[in-house]
Amino acid sequence: MCGIVGAVAKRNIVSILVNGLLRLEYRGYDSAGLVVVHDAKLERVRSAGRVAELGQKSANTYGELGIAHTRWATHGVPSERNAHPHMSRDLIAVVHNGIIENYEELRTELTAQGYEFTSDTDTEVIAHLIHSHYAQGSLLIATQMALSQLVGAYAIGVVAADNPHQLIAARKGSPLLLGVGVGEHFVASDMSALLQVTKNVVYLEEGDVVEVNLANYRIFDQLGNSVQRQVHVSELDNDSVELGEYQHYMQKEIHEQPQALANTLESVCNSQSLVPGIFGAEANTIFPQVENILILACGTSNHSGQVAKYWLEEIAGIPCNVEIASEYRYRTSVPNPKTLVVTISQSGETADTLAALIHAKSTGHAFTLAICNVPESAIIRQSKLRLLTRAGPEIGVASTKAFTTQLAALFLLTLVMAKLRGRLDAEREQQFLHELRHLPAAVQKVLALEPKIAEMAKHFANKHHALFLGRGMHFPIAAEGALKLKEISYIHAEAYPAGELKHGPLALVDADMPVVSVAPNDTLLEKLKSNLQEVKARGGELFVFADAETHIKESEGVHILQMPEHAGFLSPILHTIPLQLLAYYVALEKGTDVDKPRNLAKSVTVE
Ligand code: F6R
After folding, report:
1. What is the dihedral of CA 454, 456, 462, 467, to 10 degrees?
2. Bridge-based pairing state of the strands 385-388 and 368-372
3. Angle separating helix axes 401-420 and 299-311, nearest 10 degrees
4. Helix/strand/coil for 84
5. Domain boundaries along the sequence of the chain
6. CB distance 282 to 294 below 8 Å
7. Statement: residue 56 has pLDDT above 90
8. Per the omega criterion (within 30 degrees of 0), is the bond before 85 cis?
9. Tens of pLDDT, residues 465-484
10. Considering only CA atoms, which of 325, 474, 481, 346 is closest in space to residue 402?
11. Is 288 within 8 Å of 420 (Cβ atoms)?
């Protein structure tokens, strides 16, 4: 989704803006632009291409105050005229993330007042609105007045040509951070854009407006009261967002999984027993009251929830439902106040998941837990309980290490719930803790299969469709494998629980339809083998991801990838890795933009 960077300093800030946008490229965008204030004029540079092109076009631009943006088109096609910043009468410039729902009505009113529109965006109304209130002379007040007329979601940055040292920023429904420097200040939609200049950051809250000057800043809450917000020191470091020795962020992030898992499990693996307190102090009183679990999430995060359902019901004996957040938020459900509502999100800013959580709370759900990778994100702040996955920044649009760390966190939830419900004796608890401690090493062994998977990927390069099969807790892993493949290689891929094959999809199977099967050595293996026979008999080409003891033989049209070990309940985590690698290498074969697949954004902060 769109990205924002802004700066006010006593030096040329153009390279800070451009480098910040480069850091935000991973979020997905189709055009970019910046504006600086120089000699009481707004100097705007925009490009319908990549940020690098914007960097070239602005190489000779100078300014000590400016705002910049990467746009992900919602209103109006991707083009230079629709790229931000948008300006009003050469006096006001605005960058905006989010969607203004009442923009048509505002546009009509502003046109009647004589404002001319030069883009098809909803954002341009913000620039003109601020301009229409600016006669009073205060950019802060003009912005606050304009914001009070907006319906929708926004994070904005605003500058005025006649105000050379001041930037106004605001957020409601879209994330925005304030970077605090020495005698200089910055704003950005994502911490990774700020690491080049500061680690001191204020997470602006819903409805906040901030007036940013060279030496200081003032924050006002949604009622207009001046408020103090804590300055945090970010734990991210610049290296964690560097590509290093890898070709793509996705590849890097796949390889970071042993460390990401070890970090996520650190507190537990260092202790001798599991306690509810790892989810927050209030878990001690909330968890014993919980009668069932409702998981809300989107995309890959939803798949981790689907795996957890198997764990929670089988190991902890607690009923669990998993819903797509965008569906749940709009349907009439029957709330039970004893339900634990678990939201899962890498970014913690996904609009649908956040709205589903707020909706759940509005229907009376008071027990809320967030499993999330970004501290201080909106979803974390809206939840009573939390467990942070410690995957580190995930830059590749296709989620990888966030997914496996979510699974690890959900496994911890399962064990804590099982223990509270008397279903986990001390011996079994120690056994599970032992398996968790071994997990990073087990994942490392799977990563060693990379060259074999790269070979296997060659079979997919000229295919247009693929089927993914799994059973039980590995069905969501098959679904995740299909999602990865379609996202980054653009091959149409669908996942089915293998038992469903003969109820319809078998009709699709022929030599042009590769069938990928997740085949761990579990109780459903024999049934899965029969399903695979059904595929083979129809001339389908099979790619089987089997465990060491699975005993499925390689033959004509049957390719086997033998996993190094069988991990019992943790097997879904191990089986995810080869599917991520498969999607990655198929995308390489096809030459697609692995880290920034077309039409997709990293954080989906609009509906
Ligand atoms: C797929 C992917 C998306 C996200 C989904 C939710 O690779 O990344 O499906 O999982 O948009 O995002 P988060 O987890 O940030 O809420």
Report:
1. -120
2. parallel
3. 30
4. coil
5. 3-241, 249-446, 450-590
6. no
7. yes
8. yes
9. 999 999 999 999 999 999 99
10. 346
11. yes
Identify the pLDDT of residue 173.
77
- Indicate which residue's Cα is closest to atom 9 of ligand 1: 299
Check: CB of residue 321 under 8 Å from CB of residue 371: no
Is residue 2 in contact with ligand 1, taking CB distance under 6 Å? no
401 is catalytic: no
Cβ(515) to ligand 1 under 6 A?
Answer: no
Which sign does the torsion angle of CA 7, 13, 17, 20 carry? Answer: negative
Specify the pLDDT at position 534.
83
**Cα–Cα dist 62/39, whole Å:** 10
Whether 484 is a known active-site residue: answer no
Atom of ligand 1 nearest to the CA of 297: 16
At residue 151's C-alpha, the angle toward residues 150 and 157, to 5°, is 50
Question: Six-digit token pair at 494?
Answer: 């669908």
Domain 450-590 has CATH 2.30.40.10: no
CATH 2.40.50.140, domain 249-446, yes or no: no
pLDDT one-digit tens code per residue, 171-210:
987 889 999 999 999 999 988 899 999 999 998 988 999 9
Residue 341 three-state SS: strand
What is the DSSP annotation of 85-142? PEEETTTEEEEEES-BTTHHHHHHHHHHTTPPP-SS-STHHHHHHHHHHGGGS-HHHH
To the question of pTM greater than 0.85 for the whole model, the response is: no
The span from the CA of 408 to the CA of 567, in Å, is: 13
Q: What is the mean pLDDT of residues 13-37?
A: 91
Q: Which of 172, 309, 419, 602 is catalytic?
A: 602
Q: CATH number for the 3-241 domain, one of 3.60.20.10, 3.40.50.1820, 3.10.20.320, 1.10.3470.10? A: 3.60.20.10
Q: Tell me if 350 CB under 6 Å of ligand 1.
A: yes
Ligand 1 pocket, 302 CB below 6 A? no
- Region 493-508: mean pLDDT is 91
Beta strands, E only, 303-384: 320-324, 339-345, 368-372
Considering only CA atoms, which residue is closest to atom 3 of ligand 1?
A: 299
Cα–Cα dist 164/399, whole Å: 41
**Would you say the CATH fold of 450-590 matches that of 249-446?**
yes
